[in-house]
Write a structure and sequence with these properties.
203 residues; mainly alpha; Rna Polymerase Sigma Factor, Chain: A; Arc Repressor Mutant, subunit A; 2 domains; 63% helix; 0% strand; globular
């Protein structure tokens, strides 16, 4: 099913670059720290900056608040798991993060079997933007997300890592791990369910 055209991705880092070095991306070091050291403070800083922007991006494109908040968690989970795949030669951190957000949103729309809303349609009433209180709640959820990931069973964590970090299909995971395809799907479903329940219970 064809999708309506996507608006340009937000470019949040255009105004965040260091005044001392206009070519420097101030978030590269944070992503590197997450990738190399699983640095929770670095991830919290990325979450604090990008989560409210991702929420507003999804709301502006017509997602309801519940879906937008789930997409924020999904995108930031991908940032945590895939930090090692970030290539500063290809894009800024902001472009990388919002590309993940756009792709996750399209995936969600495909699963729901409906076309993406056209943000230029005058009949569409945009949802309200995140309030300061909601932005603060998003920041708090960064630690909750990390705790939820850390509490996963090892076999669930492995399939989640392969799915998000290595971007393997279910079939590829099954082949590499020598597991039945049904087992791979079950473990991934259980992992995502655990993360959602953990985030909901601590909200």
């Amino acid at each position: 099913m064809p999708f309506s055209r996507e608006p340009p991705l937000p470019r949040p880092l255009e105004q965040d670059r260091s005044s001392a070095d206009p070519d420097a991306d101030p978030f590269e070091a944070l992503v590197h720290a997450v990738a190399q050291d699983r640095d929770r403070n670095a991830f919290a800083a990325l979450f604090r900056h990008f989560a409210p922007k991702i929420l507003n991006y999804c709301l502006k494109l017509g997602a309801d608040r519940g879906m937008a908040e789930e997409l924020v968690q999904d995108v930031m989970l991908a940032v945590w798991l895939k930090a090692g795949s970030f290539d500063p030669a290809q894009a800024t951190v902001g472009t990388w993060v919002f590309t993940i957000a756009r792709n996750r949103r399209i995936d969600r729309l495909r699963k729901e079997m409906r076309p993406a809303p056209d943000p230029d349609d005058p009949a569409m009433t945009p949802a309200s933007l995140a309030t300061p209180e909601e932005a603060a709640q998003l920041v708090q959820s960064s630690r909750q997300l990390q705790d939820a990931i850390g509490s996963l069973a090892a076999n669930q964590s492995e399939v989640l890592r392969r799915s998000y970090f290595l971007e393997q299909t279910h079939e590829e995971i099954a082949e590499d791990t020598e597991l039945p395809l049904g087992t791979v799907k079950t473990r991934l479903r259980l992992a995502l369910g655990h993360l959602k329940r953990s985030m909901r219970d601590k909200a």
